[in-house]
Amino acid sequence: MHHRTVEQLAAGAGPIHRLDPRVKLVTVLAFVVGVSTLPVVPLTLFLWPAVLVLSALLVAGLPFLFVLSRSLLVLPFVLMVAMFLPFTRGPTPLWVLPGLELTVYQEGLQLSLAILIKGALALLAVEWLVFTTPFHRLLLAMRAFRVPRVIVVTLSFLFRYLDLLADQSQRVRRARMARAPGGTVRWRLRSTGGMIGRLLLRALDRADRVHQAMLARGFDGEIRILSCLQMRRVDVVFLVGAGAGLVAVPILGLVAGGGL
Amino acid sequence: MHLPDGILSAPVWIGAGAVTAGALALCVRRASRQLDEQRAPLMGVLGAFVFAAQMINFPVPGGTSGHLMGAVLLAVLLGPAAASVVLFCVFLVQSLLFQDGGITALGANFINMGLVGSFGGWAVYRLLAGGGGQARRSLAAFVAAWAAVEVGALLAALQLWASGSAPLMPVLWTMGTVHAFIGIGEGLITVATLRFLSAARPSLLESVP
Amino acid sequence: MKPGDLAVAVEDLSFDYHGHQALSGISFSLEAGERVALVGPNGAGKSTLMLHLNGLLMGSGVVRIHGLRIEKSSLSKVRQQVGMVFPDPEDQLFMPTLEEDAAFGPLNMGLSRQQATQRARQALATMGLAELGERSSHHLSDGERRRAAIATVLSMEPKVWVLDEPGANLDPKGRRELIAVLRQLPGTVLLASHDMDMVVQVCKRCLVLDGGKLVAQGLTEQVLADAELMEQHGLEVPLRLANKQRSETC
Amino acid sequence: MKPGDLAVAVEDLSFDYHGHQALSGISFSLEAGERVALVGPNGAGKSTLMLHLNGLLMGSGVVRIHGLRIEKSSLSKVRQQVGMVFPDPEDQLFMPTLEEDAAFGPLNMGLSRQQATQRARQALATMGLAELGERSSHHLSDGERRRAAIATVLSMEPKVWVLDEPGANLDPKGRRELIAVLRQLPGTVLLASHDMDMVVQVCKRCLVLDGGKLVAQGLTEQVLADAELMEQHGLEVPLRLANKQRSETC
I need a surface site. Which of B102, B185, C217, D204 has the fewest CB within 10 A? Predict the structure, then answer.
């Protein structure tokens, strides 16, 4: 599964990997928010954020092609939604598709391109974050930022038991396939309900057993952990540098938006 | 249908984010009360279950293959507040680890696929099922699950339109039609799963908060 | 010998799993009616190999079941002939009742509802579960659940049985019953197990797998009694055989 | 003998589970430092009994741990003294990394981070997992995972160990390693297992449970060699003992 690859990459030990997860989380949030709020024109606005995120990916030593290929995940959605735009948003006609009586407008085309670029850049930034930060370190950052404890704890158990339940799900599907070369729709539905239902029952039983195991080791409602985060000088330096880089994004936006 | 970053305009995603933050704050408070900390692992393991269940595909009439979104199912089991918290965590993990759905769009996605399903779907289910028998409960679950998917999709379409990312009628029509079919799959799977559960462990469905 | 005389014929099978060579250059064959064990440490590739025998995985190389080569087009036929029993019976029991579980395979093979029900009932009866057809597997004991999983395959009347760790977590009584069942399964049997004493009691012949390679094969009593070989592959000489040697020397 | 000399003292323990009498009138005691096995068929009530030993379940009757009676008010003290190892290590390894898992108990006992870290590292090192502290459990082999589960308890330095089926699903090598670990656990040990040969190798004394009742107890070599008793309770004479008898008669 994909998240195993993510985990492997995140377990690396480069300088970016070692950065404080709070610093990385804040940086990426700011970047994504900045990019999402940039105006649509001119497209050259996106050059600077693209340089930022691509160089961050390079410095992190991540497999470049793999990361880029993942960012293409935005394509199908954007294509499905934004395919109307070039034909419907005017007023400046660019060209007419011969034989179809369809006019492609400049504004619409620019908008759909901008949407595509924004989506891809945000994705790259998120990839940079999760490919260099083990999930439990991200949770430490969330804890530090006062995300409600129920959510952090739920996320922690979710991630811990994701593989286990996914494996179970795969084994059930295999067992069905081994006996099901064909089958009617009604039959398949009944078995699907059974598979999901049993998966759920097993998940509930698992939760009970985990809870018992926690109680047995003195759990009293509070989850105590060893790890604590410490800002180092290099984290501060990175934060300042990234901040300076990012401030340029909305300024560029303002400049372009104000037509200066 | 997880909206990515960049497709929603700032007013829309900020608005949706605010709604999400408010709703989530209420849900968190309610869920922490309902399932006190003593049952910490339950919600996380159920979140993992949603992923595992989504790996089980079911061919939908109309050619696509559907998988469970599970909002109505979770709401029937846990109550809408706790279900919402679990679903929020699921969407967060999907957007972070699977790059499925954007960070700024998290609020909108949570409203469309989480809140609508867990609160709306749950209300529809409760209303239609009443104290009825198996057949009536099944029908109620089907309608609730179908409606949750359809309404969520229409909301997404409206958000896209409000963001200026799509013209109103085509996007309503496309999303509406596609999800009318996906909703059938969701409805059928939800019903089949609930029927199995009521046979295998009836106590589960009686203790709904 | 013509390949048609063999129940299972595997030729030069290799399988690559995410860049890890899970199986490499495996060749072996089972004659019809043989009962053969597959032993090896955890991670040796036993489960991976077994999944190839009914096309749930497909590596490079050729696998034939009663002469029929496993490929996309032959899958449904192959799966009717090869019955798989998985390590965790819970994975295999997913219908609301046992009877439906046991009828699942036959119905998918295209039998009528009546025929399928008959097959299901017969299989459950053979496994001593005749009374429990209406139950959900959740209410069974571990031993019953194990036998139920076997019944769901028995109802398909497969010619070849592939069983992956069917003895895990059974109590001594459940284990004894299972051994009795395994010794009576009709057809060809390939059994993977960590329970060396079970292997000795069920299988005449034995294959040893380690690191994705077939490292030894031969008569069970000889292969498993080879202390050096067993040690080398993280296994152990079953007490039953150790006994024998001791009695012989004594 | 004063009750304070006993590590575990159970008096007339009964437990009713949804109207089903899961345990009835159980009394026994373990002296400090003893290694005792708990055997019986599936469903005999072994797990239920074990859950009473650190107050995860509370039935009628009295359970004392080193003289301290288990009740609501003594729970946190009891749980520091009684270490439980559960059948599925995945249930016990619920934190993101092994080190966090091994520190979970010590932190709950009120140790400082530093002390807890030290305890965790030491426990992992003792179990041969020193290098794996940063790993998450799903990258471990079955045998490592099993030892990791034991390390999470070892770090609490319990006086009494309660282990429920710790040998399930291990391959022969993992099983041998586990037996070596069990023989060296410090303190009093109560071990439930279906693996009769493991029981013989680890425990001198043995309790037999069936239908929620204690039906026999005594020296392992005598109790488990009693073929009639074993047969009656769905167990079996371990081969190791059967051997011995045979060698003696021969």
Answer: D204
Report whether C191 contacts C163 (CB < 8 A).
Answer: yes
To the nearest whole number, what is the mean pLDDT of chain A?
A: 86
**Contacts with A, B 105-124, CB within 8 Å:** none
| Domain ranges, ordered by start, for chain B | 10-205
pLDDT digits 0-9 by tens, A196-212: 999 999 999 999 999 99
CA angle, corner B167, sides to B166 and B169, nearest 5? 125
Q: Which of C165, C230, C246 sits opposite D243 (nearest CB)?
A: C246
Q: Is the pLDDT assigned to residue C1 strictly greater than 50? A: no
Nearest to D71 by CA among D52, D86, D84: D52
Lowest mean pLDDT across A109-123, C50-64, D81-95: A109-123
pLDDT at C3: 46
Facing residue for D172 by CB, picked from C43, C142, C235: C235
Q: Which parts of chain C fold into alpha helices (H)?
A: 46-52, 75-81, 89-92, 98-108, 113-126, 142-154, 172-184, 196-202, 220-223, 227-232, 239-249
Q: Examine the pLDDT at D106 and tell me if it is beyond 60.
A: yes
Query: D49-104 pLDDT, tens per residue?
Result: 999 999 999 999 999 999 999 999 999 999 999 999 999 999 999 999 999 999 99
Mean pLDDT over residues A225-233, rounded?
88
Contact B197 A197 (CB under 8 A): yes
Contact A64, A74 (CB under 8 A): no
> What pLDDT does residue C18 have?
78
First to last CA, chain C: 43
Is A186 part of the contact surface with chain C (CB cutoff 8 Å)? no
Q: Cα–Cα distance between A179 and C163 in angstroms, integer?
A: 14
Taking an 8 Å cut-off on Cβ atoms, the answer to whether A225 and D91 are in contact is no
Extended beta strands in chain A, E state:
93-97, 102-105
Which of C58, C72, C104, C109 should be substituted to probe chain A, the one whose Cβ sees the most A Cβ atoms within 10 Å? C104
Token readout for C242 is 């150790």
Would you state the structure tokens that stand for residue D33, as one six-digit string? 């430092």
Q: How large is the ipTM?
A: 0.90
B201 contact C CB<8A: yes
Check D84 against A216: CB less than 8 A apart.
yes
Q: Is C104–A175 a contact, with Cβ atoms under 8 angstroms apart?
A: no
- C119-167: pLDDT as tens digits: 999 999 999 898 888 888 777 888 888 899 999 999 999 999 999 999 8
Residue C45: exposure state from Cβ atoms within 10 A (0-12, 13-18, ≥19): buried
Instruction: List pLDDT tens digits, range B85-131.
Output: 999 999 999 999 988 889 999 999 999 999 999 999 999 999 998 87
Q: Which residues of A touch B103 (CB under 8 A)?
A: 28-29, 32, 122, 126
DSSP codes, A120-170: HHHHHHHHHHHHHS-HHHHHHHHHHTT--HHHHHHHHHHHHHHHHHHHHHH
Fold of the CATH domain B10-205? Arp2/3 complex 21 kDa subunit ARPC3 (1.10.1760)
Burial classification of residue D77, based on how many CB atoms lie within 10 Å of its CB (0-12 exposed, 13-18 middle, 19 or more buried): middle
**Count of helices and strands (H, E) across chain C:** 11, 10
D136 near D98, Cβ under 8 Å? yes
Contact A171 C88 (CB under 8 A): yes
Pull the structure tokens for residue D195: 């693996």
B55 touches chain C (CB under 8 A): no
Token pair 């949407």 is found at: A115
Residue D82's SS3 state is strand
Average pLDDT, chain D: 91
- The answer to whether D189 touches D166, Cβ cutoff 8 Å, is no
Please list the residues that pair with D8 across neighbouring strands.
D30, D65
